[in-house]
Design goal:
- With about 500 residues, the protein is an alpha/beta fold.
- It has 3 domains: about 130 residues, 5'-nuclease (Rossmann fold, 3-Layer(aba) Sandwich), CATH 3.40.50; about 150 residues, Gcn5-related N-acetyltransferase (GNAT) (Aminopeptidase, 3-Layer(aba) Sandwich); about 190 residues, ph1033 like domains (ph1033 like fold), CATH 3.10.590.10.
- The strands form 4 sheets. A 7-stranded mixed sheet has the order 6-7-8-9-10-12-11, with helices on one face. Strands 15-18-17-16-14-19 form a 6-stranded mixed sheet. The chain has a 5-stranded parallel sheet with strand order 3-2-1-4-5.
Length: about 500
């Protein structure tokens, strides 16, 4: 039985008087079903005893009985002290170091925390593979247990406010934060939002608004210059393990690109665990905290959306890519193509065959596994995915170019299956069993991993026959296989033939 140590903030947000319905509760129930032991540290108990409200303190202490108190406090390891001393700023940080110490000494198997500093220290201690956010651990849990994912029929669609059930419990936390939420919601009846609904219950909601140069922001502490912006008005998900946050962000980025805005912004509280998780997600994709909305007390987060490319971390400037001569075809088989790249679904494919996506479907950042002889690929290279033929007709008409990706990293150095699985599992289309079969297939030629960003789906698909006509492919009997370089000239031909909007490319 695996032992999981829970950070204080994870417990306190689960056990408050306003628990996060259908989310963290579900997650912990699944942990119990899969025979994980959940522990809290004596430090956590001490922190709870300091809560000023007697009623709140007593309530949480009673609920602690659902967990196990770790029956020891290990002495701090000298290496843990050396790594963490320079990072710890206050007593809370020092308490968190004690939690990490138990993981470092292998007294527990995992630690679950949403605290950024804890994850930073875990990396310094080289135990980051044992320290998880809820989202990361849920992703692994759900992918390993098929029966837990059967109800995840993800179908995000734009719907009018007027036809959305305002009484759904999904909106309860929003009402708690915004006293006039219902009034605002009803006033938006003829506007639309992106909604994820599963079994008549709302599990995700995204409202976007384009604001022009005349918009005023009198309550913001940071001055906003007069430019066109996209406002993320409401953004909430409550379904773990399928990277819904990234999927909704992709929708926001697509809208920003379509409307040619210069900036994206949102306001958010950081009082609850789900709010903190959302903030962690958006900062990964380039949002920066810039002041406060004085009228609500919310923090303001801004993402510059003018064309730019961050070579060190392209996620910060997604979806922009830099024009380059290093462009490659990537061959992908039909049975994997639309699972990995659902936005590039073909007209002859049935959407209902792909209505149970997992994290690899929803994520912007993905992993492609290859055995290509050509391994000359590096960070910043452009990838053009070509779906191979499916045997239902000649390949020259069934094999099509569908998607542009951007290489984040290439891992050619997996020595063990454990390393391979760790790098591939969460964002590839394969289960652990399939990964093991792939790894064992040929011990003299192990597969390698390409971590990439899903950038753009071509509006018009280009066939293998089209590639031949444009002299991009020389011989239909010997089409590009694996990963093969095509260069920038061919890439420009593809962009033109597919009617691509090239605004995502910086020339």
């Amino acid at each position: 039985m695996k032992r999981i140590l829970l950070d204080t903030n994870v417990i306190i947000h689960r056990e408050t008087n306003y628990p996060i319905k259908d989310t963290i509760g579900d997650f912990f129930r699944y942990l119990n079903e899969q025979e994980y032991e959940l522990f809290y540290h004596a430090i956590t108990k001490t922190e709870f005893e300091k809560i000023e409200s007697e009623k709140h303190r007593d309530s949480i202490q009673k609920k602690l009985r659902a967990y196990n108190l770790l029956p020891f406090q290990s002495e701090l390891d000298t290496h843990v002290i050396a790594v963490c001393n320079s990072i710890d700023q206050d007593q809370n940080d020092k308490n968190d170091t004690r939690l990490l110490n138990e993981v470092y000494l292998e007294k527990v198997d995992f630690l679950i925390s949403e605290d950024k500093t804890i994850h930073r220290k875990a990396k310094g201690l080289k135990i980051q593979e044992k320290v998880f956010t809820i989202e990361r651990f849920a992703d692994i849990l759900f992918k390993n247990i098929p029966q837990l994912t059967q109800y995840r029929l993800v179908d995000i669609e734009p719907r009018y406010f007027g036809e959305i059930n305002l009484k759904d419990s999904f909106f309860d936390t929003l009402r708690e934060d915004y006293c006039e939420f219902d009034i605002w919601f009803k006033r938006k009846s003829t506007e639309r939002a992106y909604v994820l609904q599963i079994k008549n219950k709302i599990r995700g909601f995204l409202y976007l608004k384009v604001e022009d140069e005349k918009e005023n922001y009198p309550d913001f502490t940071t001055t906003f210059s007069p430019i066109k912006r996209l406002k993320i008005g409401t953004f909430k998900t409550n379904l773990f393990g399928v990277n819904l946050g990234e999927r909704f962000l992709k929708i926001a980025f697509d809208n920003a690109m379509h409307n040619s805005v210069s900036e994206i912004y949102l306001t958010a509280y950081d009082k609850t665990l789900t709010q903190q998780m959302m903030i962690n997600e958006i900062t990964k994709w380039g949002f920066i905290e810039k002041g406060v909305n004085n009228s609500t007390g919310e923090k303001v987060f801004v993402r510059d959306f003018s064309p730019d490319f961050n070579e060190e971390d392209p996620r910060k400037t997604y979806p922009y890519i830099m024009n380059t001569d290093r462009v490659h075809f990537v061959q992908i088989f039909p049975e994997y193509h639309t699972k990995l790249l659902p936005e590039s679904i073909l007209k002859n494919e049935n959407p209902h065959d792909f209505n149970k996506p997992q994290s690899h479907s929803n994520s912007i950042e993905k992993v492609f596994i290859s055995r290509s002889i050509n391994k000359d690929i590096k960070k910043g290279d452009i990838l053009v995915f070509r779906r191979t033929g499916d045997g239902k007709a000649p390949a020259k008409y069934r094999s099509v170019v569908t998607t542009v990706g951007l290489t984040l990293s290439v891992n050619l150095n997996c020595v063990t299956f454990k390393q391979f699985k760790k790098s591939a599992f969460q964002r590839s289309v394969f289960s652990e069993k399939e990964l093991k079969e792939m790894w064992d297939r040929n011990q003299h030629s192990r597969p390698f991993l390409v971590n990439f960003l899903n950038i753009y789906s071509f509006p018009k698909k280009m066939t293998l026959n089209d590639l031949l006509e444009l002299d991009i492919v020389k011989d239909l009997k010997n089409p590009p296989r694996g990963i093969s370089s095509i260069g920038n000239t061919s890439f420009k031909k593809i962009l033109k033939r597919t009617n691509a909007d090239e605004s995502f490319i910086i020339y």
